[in-house]
Design goal:
heterodimer, A: alpha+beta, Uridine Diphospho-n-acetylenolpyruvylglucosamine Reductase, domain 3, Enolase-like, domain 1, 14 strands, 36% helix, 25% strand, globular, B: alpha+beta, Aldehyde Oxidoreductase, domain 3, Aldehyde Oxidoreductase, domain 4, 7-stranded mixed β-sheet, 5-stranded mixed β-sheet, binds flavin-adenine dinucleotide
């Protein structure tokens, strides 16, 4: 559990961070995923650049139809934020269920998306509301829809020299909720489902059932077609093929996706 | 939770707060990793990434070229005096004892086996160096499952043992076959007691400090058994035992994992000898998962012959224990502890036992909290429920029918033990009352109306502890005796130092031992200091494990206190110019019977004994006494745990909604400490029942090397517990004490599994294996419904 030798710098501006990343440094946000990977020597960056000193990456504000969340905003801040609670409750709920208090106090929304863990809660919740990120690199900024950001296990479409500066959450998702199933209080989701009831119908997105967060098309089609939550739950497993592991079989995880989608749907209405 | 007042008093039976806790909660505890010796270097071990492989060669040149790396040692380059580790082979036994070179010689047999040691300026460089050691491996076939290892044609863990058999224990009572044949019915059950990892908060770690000029070596190590380690250092490192000092600083938990002698402990000593400076090694968490012993991993096949009343008339027990790739200090003996307790608290006189032990390509198993007894208890308690189920009897009733009755004590078991005392109905009655067993069906109906399954489960356990009469340890192949040492030393000012051979690592001996001193000698609790865990201060001590500390070490202390008191009496008689018979002990002083004004306090007598100016004829100065106490028998704590669960059929999650424990550990020194041991013990049993499992893949890789995969319950995951006690003193020692360190763990897993099986029994579920994770429970529900 000892990381290999590395250089550490702390950036004080986004430009400084991008310069460091361009030079090969790995961004360090809350360190709640990167540090364990480094300690297990699954990651061995020669240099890291700490984003923790960049004030403009922290905070939540309204921006037209969207809420702009700084990439370095912690899970704890996201969970408690009134704007997010009002307009995107599912995201606040997902953040409030991450790990433990200590982890929520350090881990960040940007780090969660960039890390792209197939069991991460934030990516599924943000997919349920149809959010996006703003990425900035040496050539400037671009917007990446969440469905295009995470491409596989721990893999994103960010360029090597880009960092996430903001997460954009569309308003109008107040009626939404997140349901998570895990073993111990501190554990990652085995499966987690976010449901948002928006103007264009119900959207449901799950974590833990694929190599990336995915929409539960079967559930959405059923519920939007007027099926009961129980019926829709049975359709939730359609089109997903979760990997069997120590946490359960493919069949079990498909089943859980349905149970959690129904739970979240129920909670979203309240 | 049992409620009790925290009194300022400090004698036997008082719930005083632990005197050692202040330093721990304020961060002043001092563990191995807190120690820094001048010139010290740091070691990291290169470990096998394969479950089984041949080593063709090791290239250390790249690592040695890394700036900051001082030396890389392999088997070939360790000092020539270094021997191999091999536990003593008990005479007449069939136990196989493969040699363990400190660093692998030409073959590795489990993931994590040490291959080389890199010594560098700090741990970080040493780790980078370890990554640069190139080992040329040829992978070999692997077998991790014990039943598979014993099957024909299995890959061989040690080519010299063509059947992977490590040892076998067989035992059958006369008349067993007839009794089994005559049984009205038979009940069969297969039970798997999965592999688990002890996971103490502090991992292992040690510092070897070899003095080149004198050949003296000091080893600082996180252990439960400093003296064993010293003996083995002298043997393995090739030096005089008299030149070896082993120091145990504060130890952050052991659970049996540190009741051992490990290759790393010897390797740092030999490396220090080779390099000429002190060498520190601190195990990291993932290393701990593969390099420190595991526990359990036993598959059991029960056949019970039962009469129509539910009485077991004959019991067949055929089990397979996974010993891992090598034998650690006690590995083959753990099976004996299971075998001893196969009948549990039941009067089962016709018994047939076969316990086969297998080598596999896994980390060695050894003592883990309960060590052999949880396996036996879990199995027999599951079997009792299976019998109840078969006969349509109540689970409590079938137990009562089979209990050993109070008038049968001392009770000779069919496995060769003599149970000291017990009143099993009493704890059962109390536990049923406290858990409102009678009202359960109404609660079940309420849960069902809510869409949940509810179940209640019992575990009526007895365990054998207070290890151990030395004749017995010899008989079951433990290469060490079971006695314990104590010295009580009174200082001129009347304060006391207790030197104990026990080795607390969380159990609170400084507190309990001080309470014993206060009651037996009248020296206040706060005036007592307890020294342990340093071979330079103590005669031989056997350490802390097997719930032995109080029943053996505490009794050794009690006897030394008696000796001091009697010596003080002679000095008092001399000072008070009377005969010893004229004196009575008041609890704090010797006084002339009926004359409180003619008395000498123990403190005055300590001063007088030191001053030595008016000593009785032939009495030596100073109040000090030493005892080596070899217990005449084990002790047998017992109790009843009742667990009530609710299961959510949608997810398979089990929630413990009630947990009641009524334990009987004989007389109690400190109720707070006993409660703490029961709480922690139950949580560890709960961990095994619901969360924990050490899993190997087919290829020999460990799939649970971090705390993300190996799930240890946290405070947020444990239920409220209702604790109570009955008191049946042990007749085997003058204090009437038993032991409580392992009881909770021994009892808990079966109570929880029995409750879960009960909850699903309406669906036809008859058994659940551990850990009962949601996916497994959900799967069982689906299968039962299909
Ligand atoms: C015990 C434990 C339990 C946990 N449980 C959960 C859980 O239940 N649910 C859950 O969702 N998560 C859980 N987490 C993970 C937690 O949410 C992390 O905080 C998160 O995965 C990563 O965020 P971070 O800020 O810590 O990022 P870091 O660990 O610092 O970085 C993670 C990765 O993202 C990159 N990165 C970080 N920020 C940026 C950026 N702005 N732009 C580009 N790249 C960036 C880093 O280079 C790195 O590759 C848990 C973690 C732990 C240790």
């Amino acid at each position: 559990m000892i990381p290999s030798t590395l250089e550490y710098t702390k950036a004080s501006s986004i430009d400084e961070a991008i310069a460091a990343v361009q030079a090969g440094a790995r961004p360090l946000a809350g360190g709640q995923s990167l540090m364990p990977m480094m300690r297990l020597r699954l990651a061995a960056p020669g240099a890291v650049v700490d984003l923790g000193g960049i004030a403009e990456l922290v905070g939540v504000c309204e921006d037209g139809d969207e809420i702009a969340v700084g990439a370095m905003t912690t899970h704890r801040a996201v969970a408690a934020d009134p704007l997010i609670g009002e307009h995107c409750r599912v995201v606040a709920q997902a953040a409030s269920g991450v790990g433990s208090l200590v982890i929520r106090g350090r881990g960040t929304i940007g780090g969660s998306l960039a890390h792209a863990d197939p069991h991460g809660d934030l990516p599924a919740a943000i997919l349920a509301v149809g959010g996006a990120v703003i990425a900035r690199g040496p050539g400037g900024e671009r917007r990446i829809e969440i469905g295009d950001l995470i491409t596989s296990y721990l893999t994103t479409s960010l360029a090597d020299d880009e960092i996430i500066t903001q997460v954009r959450l569309p308003k109008g998702n107040g009626r939404s909720a997140y349901a998570k199933f895990h073993r111990r209080a501190i554990d990652w989701s085995i499966v987690g489902v976010g449901v948002a009831i928006g103007a264009d119908g119900v959207r449901a997105a799950a974590t833990g059932v694929a190599d990336r967060p995915v929409r539960l098309a079967g559930f959405e089609a059923a519920i939007n077609g007027g099926a009961s939550a129980e019926e829709a739950a049975r359709a939730a497993g359609e089109g997903i093929d979760p990997t069997a592991d120590l946490d359960g079989s493919t069949e079990y995880k498909r089943h859980l996706a349905g149970v959690l989608a129904a739970q979240a749907h129920q909670a979203a209405q309240g | 939770m049992a409620t009790m007042e925290t009194k300022a008093a400090g004698g036997i039976g008082d719930a005083v707060l632990r005197k050692e806790d202040r330093k721990f909660v304020t961060g002043e505890g001092r563990y191995v990793d807190d120690l820094r010796l001048p010139g010290m270097l740091h070691a990291v071990f290169v470990r096998s990434p394969f479950g089984h492989a041949k080593i063709n060669g090791i290239d250390t040149s790249k690592a040695e070229a890394l700036p900051g790396v001082h030396r890389v040692l392999t088997h070939a380059t360790l000092p020539a005096e270094t021997g191999v580790l091999s536990a003593s082979n008990p005479p007449g036994s069939d136990v196989r004892q493969p040699e363990q070179p400190l660093l692998a010689r030409d073959e590795v047999r489990y993931v994590g086996e040490p291959v080389a040691i890199v010594i560098a300026d700090d741990r970080y460089i040493a780790k980078d160096g370890a990554d640069l050691v190139l080992v040329d491996y040829d992978p070999l076939p692997v077998v991790c499952d014990a039943e598979a290892a014993l099957a024909d044609g299995a890959p061989l863990v040690h080519s010299e043992y063509p059947d992977n058999a490590a040892a076998t224990i067989s035992h059958e009572t006369d008349g067993f076959a007839e009794a089994m044949q005559g049984a009205a019915r038979t009940v069969e059950l297969r039970v798997v007691n999965q592999r688990v990892t002890p996971m103490p908060m502090e991992t292992r770690g040690c510092i070897g400090d070899w003095q080149q000029a004198t050949g003296e070596v000091t080893l600082y190590t996180s252990t439960q058994v400093a003296h064993f380690v010293r003996t083995f250092v002298s043997i393995v490192c090739g030096t005089s035992e008299a030149k070896v000092r082993v120091v145990t600083p504060d130890v952050g938990g052991g659970f049996g994992a540190k009741l051992n002698t490990y290759r790393e402990e010897f390797a740092v000593c030999s490396a220090s000898r080779a390099v000429g400076v002190p060498i520190k090694w601190i195990e990291d968490r993932s290393e701990n998962a593969v390099a420190t012993i595991h526990g359990r991993d036993q598959v059991q096949y029960y056949t019970a012959g039962v009469d129509e009343s539910g009485k077991v008339v004959a019991l067949k027990f055929d089990a397979i224990q996974n010993n891992g790739a090598y034998h650690q200090l006690l590995t083959p003996s753990i099976s004996h502890l299971t075998v001893f307790m196969v009948p549990g608290c039941y009067d089962i006189q016709n018994i047939s036992i076969r316990m086969r032990q297998a080598f596999t390509n896994t980390t060695p198993t050894d003592a883990y909290r309960g060590a052999g007894r949880p396996e036996a208890t879990h199995g027999i308690e599951r079997l009792m429920d299976a019998i109840a189920d078969d006969l349509g009897m109540d689970a409590a009733e079938v137990r009562r029918v089979n209990f050993i009755k109070p008038e049968q004590f001392p009770y000779s078991s069919s496995t060769g033990l003599v149970y000291d005392s017990g009143e099993y109905d009493a704890t059962l009655d109390e536990a049923l009352r406290l858990s409102d067993y009678a009202g359960f069906e109404a609660r079940r109906a309420a849960s069902e109306a809510n869409g949940k399954y509810r179940g209640i489960g019992l575990s009526t356990y007895v365990e054998v502890c207070g290890l151990a009469p030395s004749a017995v340890t010899a008989a079951i192949g433990i290469g060490a005796p079971g006695w314990e040492h104590s010295t009580v030393r009174l200082h001129p000012t009347g304060k006391a130092t207790v030197i104990t051979g026990t080795s607390p690592h969380g159990q609170g001996h400084a507190t309990s031992w001080s309470q014993i001193v206060q009651t037996e000698l009248g020296i206040p609790f706060d005036d007592v200091e307890v020294i342990h865990g340093d071979t330079a201060f103590q005669p031989y001590g056997l350490g802390t494990y097997g719930s032995r500390s109080l029943a053996v070490g505490g009794v050794a202390l009690y006897r030394s206190l008696g000796k001091v008191r009697e010596k003080a009496r002679e000095i008092a008689a001399n000072l008070l110019e009377c005969s010893v018979e004229d004196l009575e002990w008041t609890g704090t002083s010797w006084q002339v019977k009926g004359s409180p004004d003619r008395a000498k306090t123990i403190q005055e007598l300590a001063g007088a004994a030191w001053a030595a100016s008016s000593m009785p004829e032939g009495v030596e100065p100073v109040l000090e006494a030493t005892t080596f106490h070899d217990p005449p028998n084990f002790t047998f704590p017992f109790g009843t745990h009742v667990c009530e669960v609710e299961i959510d059929p949608a997810t398979g999650r089990i929630e413990i909604v009630n947990y009641t424990a009524v334990d009987d550990c004989g007389n109690v020194i400190n109720p707070l400490i006993v409660d703490g041991q029961v709480h922690g013990g139950i949580i560890q049993g709960l961990g095994q029942a619901l969360y924990e499992e050490t899993v190997y893949g087919e290829d020999g890789q460990m799939l649970t090397p971090t705390l993300v995969e190996y799930l240890v319950p946290s405070a947020a995951d444990v239920p409220e517990m209702t604790l109570a006690r009955t008191t049946t003193p042990s007749p085997s020692n003058p204090m009437g004490v038993k032991g409580i360190g392992e009881a909770g763990t021994i009892a808990a897993s079966s109570a929880i599994v029995n409750a879960a099986v009960d909850a699903l029994s309406g669906l036809g579920v008859r058994h659940l294996e551990m850990p009962m994770q949601p996916a497994r429970v959900w799967g069982a529900i689906q299968e039962a419904k299909a």
